[in-house]
Structure formats: C-alpha cells, structure tokens
Amino acid sequence: MRTLIKNAVCVLPDGLASVDVLVDGERIVSVDAPATTVADEIVDASGLHLLPGVIDDQVHFRDPGLTHKEDLHTGSRACAKGGVTTFLEMPNTVPAATTRAAIDAKLAIAAEKSVVNYGFYIGATADNLDELRAADGVPGIKIFIGSSTGDLLVDDQDALERIFAETTLPICAHCEDETTVRGNAAALGDAVDVTDHSRIRSAEAALIATRRAIDLAHRHHHRFHVLHVSTAAEAALLADHRDVVTGEACVHHLEFSVDDYPRLGTRIQMNPSIKTTDDVAALWAALRDGRLQVVATDHAPHTLDEKARPYPASPSGLPAVENSLALMLNAVHERACTLEQVVHWMCDAPARVWDIVGKGRIADGYDADLVLVDLALEKTVRDAEQETKSRWSPWDGATLRGWPVRTWVLGRTVFRDGRVCDDERGRPARYDHSLGGYWAGRA
Ligand code: DOR
Q1: Is 134 within the bounds of a domain?
Q2: Which residues of 130-160 are buried (b: 16+ CB within 10 A; e: fewer)?
Q3: What's 229's domain CATH number?
Q4: How far is the CA of 12 from the centre of ligand 1 (A)?
Q5: Which residue ranges have their beta carbon within 6 Å of ligand 1?
Q6: 37: in domain
Q7: For residue 427, is pLDDT > 60?
Q8: Which ligand 1 atom lies nearest to the CA of residue 270?
Q9: Ligand 1 pocket mutation, candidates 62, 299, 316, criterion most atoms within 8 A of CB
Q10: Beta-carbon contacts of residue 128 (< 8 Å; ≥ 6 apart)
Q11: Into how many domains does the chain fold?
C-alpha cells in the first residue's frame, strides 16, 4: 500500500517545509515526492500540518491486573485518537513487570490488543539485579525512588548503588523522597484534604530524591532520565548535568497549579503533586532553554468512583494520552511554544532518550508513524467522549485549538474523521542502546 500525503506543511528535522510525503508499506520512502508519483491513496492535506507520531515515554495502561481502570486495547485506542503512535509503559502492573517473563507476558497482550506501537520498562526491585542485567528489547529500567501506585519502591542506598553500578540499560525514576513524604504526612495528621497533597508530596520531597538520583547517575556515569519533573528547583539542578541526565515534564504539571484544587479536587491528585504557578512557569522555561527535553503524560487512569473516595483514600493519577498533543498544539496557538518545539519534545527527543530505532522524525527510511493535525480546529474535551476506559479527563470542558485529524501507525490508518480504526495492531518498538542516548553527538 502506497500513500501520498500531499499539500501538508510538514515538520521535518530541520524545520517546516511544504513537501509531499510518500509512504510505502510501513516506511516513509520519500520526503518531497515528485508530483507524478503514483499511489494507492492520495491524501489532500491542504491546510493541515504533518507531524511524526508522538512517542509518549510514560504511561500506565494497567494491563495485566488492573484492567478495570484501563487495558492495552483502550489505552492504545486513546493513543491513536491523540496522535500518539508509540507508548512506553511503566512496570507497576499486577504482577509488576520486574522479570523477563512478566515483560514477555505484556508483549504478548500488546501484540493481541494494542492499536499503536509499544514498549515496556522493566521495574527495579531491591533484589532483581540479574533480571535487570539480562533484560533486552526494553527501553530501560524504571525505579520508584519514592512509592506511588503499587508496591515498587527502592529507597535503600546500597540497593540503588548496585543498580546504577551493575546495570547498563538507561534508567529512569520516579523521584519523591519517601522519608520526607512520610514526615510531612505525619506532621499534618488525619485532618487532611486533597489540597494537602502538595504539602505532603512537597517540592522539597521531589528535590531531595531528584538530587539523590542525579548524584548516583554522575558517580556511576549511568544514563538517567528524570521522570515528571514538577518543580523549579529540580529544573535548576538539571542545568548542570547535560551529559548523562535528561528530564521530562508532563502536561498536567505544565497546565495545573495548586490554585486548581478548589475547582478540580482529586482529578488533579497526582504523584509528584501539582505545584505552584511559579513552578509551572519554571518548567516551561526549562523546556524552552533545553534543560528539559521531553514532554509526556504519565497517563495514570483510575475510575471516577475511586477518585471520589475521600482524600487520602483517593488514588493519585489522571488520564491524558488522548489530549496531550492537543494541549501542546493549543499552547502553540497561545504562543507558549512553537510547533517545531512540540515535535522535538514529544517525538524526536523521546526517541533519542530511549534509542528507539527509526522513529520520531519525518525522514526517508523512518517508520510511517505519522499524525496529521488541524491547527485551526477547536474542540471541547468531554468526559463522555474519552476513549480511556476510565472515561474522564481533568480537561473536561476545556476548549482547545489544534487537534489530530488522522493518525497512521506503520503506514496504516488508526484514527480518521473522529473515529479510531482498531482492526490493525502496532509493533514493539526497537532499541539500539549503542546509539548512546539524547546527548550522544551533541555539544
Ligand atoms: O500519580 C501517579 N499515579 N503517579 C505515578 O507515578 C503512578 C501513577 C499510577 O500508576 O497511578
């Protein structure tokens, strides 16, 4: 099947260009195809922009074990609708993905259910070093330095030293200092509500854990990605570590502040917690000046019934994967960033951080994971229209300008005219860790 996408403005690695893109089978075969090119389908994309598909390097799709919240079918349908063509999923499923066998089980479920491409991190425990050393075909190792949903926590210094010293895969971590979080919770006592979540999971807790993890990465010269950076202080730290360390901001930390608790309550209860408007501004500044490289979601669905439990029984996490690109396109509309920056943060940079082969760019020979967006299209996010099994969004009621209108995964259409086409299945992402990560070859 050959598809010619004509008349779009394409976001190429070196900027915007009005070129026609030819896809043959699963690959992009020509960027700037001649007008005489013959194809099975010619897509007239006049007035639209063509982007590489989004790579979301932090999602929780709950499969296996917690599939009443989400599964690899519903989560991947939400991806297709949102222009996300590859997701990397976290290990806090049930059972936790801390062994080769558990990773293989997830890959088998994804092969059956996932509409888009996928990858699964292996989770670290205090005693699974052999599994971490032997793991291949995974983007990297995930450590919860600070507990969140599930029971994956590695807080012991000796265990952390061993993981950084004795493994070779890139590492990423959830950084919130457990001792600080417990101390804050004890000090506040039982009379707490959701607004206390950001006092318990404080800015200091995030900074202490991020500093500790960066120190480990440095001393062991081990590639390390700080997940969901949420504070100005962590962003400031990252300035000094542009060799082995990269960092990610999530859309909820770029959009919400503690001032939103009265309006949204537990809908924005997240770990790390939502912080102040100053932190939000600092995260945007850190993306713009390159201290942070990646924008992701940490898509972490729970049912609305679960979220309605009184705090702190309400679980932390929110779904975002079907709205993240639209949120960032809306930010382009509001002049917070450029379209090229969005493509760098959401497509190219995650591919480089995790050494993903053949993705993240519109270039000859790259995979035909593509998304066509209409920067002028305005739509309002509605709970009832969400593809996520949890059927809600913290952005319910928000009108955003700029939406995906068609998504291709490996040359096959998975979203078009407002509908997910889910008869196709994605593939596992491929990694070449000898590529050396985001900073390889950069000044
Ligand atoms: O709030 C969160 N919820 N943060 C995480 O890192 C995990 C997630 C979940 O899995 O629910």
Answers
A1: yes
A2: ebbeebeebbbbbbbbbbbbbebbbbeeeeb
A3: 3.20.20.140
A4: 33
A5: 60, 92, 148-149, 174, 270-271, 298, 300, 316-317
A6: no
A7: yes
A8: 1
A9: 316
A10: 98, 99
A11: 1
Q: Is 381 contained in some domain?
A: no
Measure 377 CA to ligand 1 centroid, in angstroms: 31
Percent share of the chain, pLDDT over 90:
95
pLDDT score recorded for residue 148? 67
63, 279, 298, 422: the active-site residue: 298
Q: 236 is written with which tokens?
A: 């400031």
Model pLDDT for residues 154-207, shown as the tens digit of each residue:
988 999 999 999 999 999 999 999 999 999 999 999 999 999 999 999 999 999
Residue 38, in any domain of the structure: no
Q: How far is residue 384's CA from residue 296's CA, in Å, rounded to a whole number?
A: 23
> What distance in Å separates the CA atoms of residue 305 and residue 308, rounded to the nearest whole number?
5
Among residues of the chain, what percentage have pLDDT more than 70? 99
Q: Give the distance (Å) from ligand 1 centre to CA of residue 271.
A: 6
Reported as a single tens digit per residue, the pLDDT across 21-52 is 999 999 999 999 998 999 999 999 999 999 99
pTM of this structure: 0.98
Range of the domain at 253: 54-359
Distance 315 CA to ligand 1 centre (A): 8
Catalytic annotation present for 298: yes
**Which amino acid is present at 131?**
E
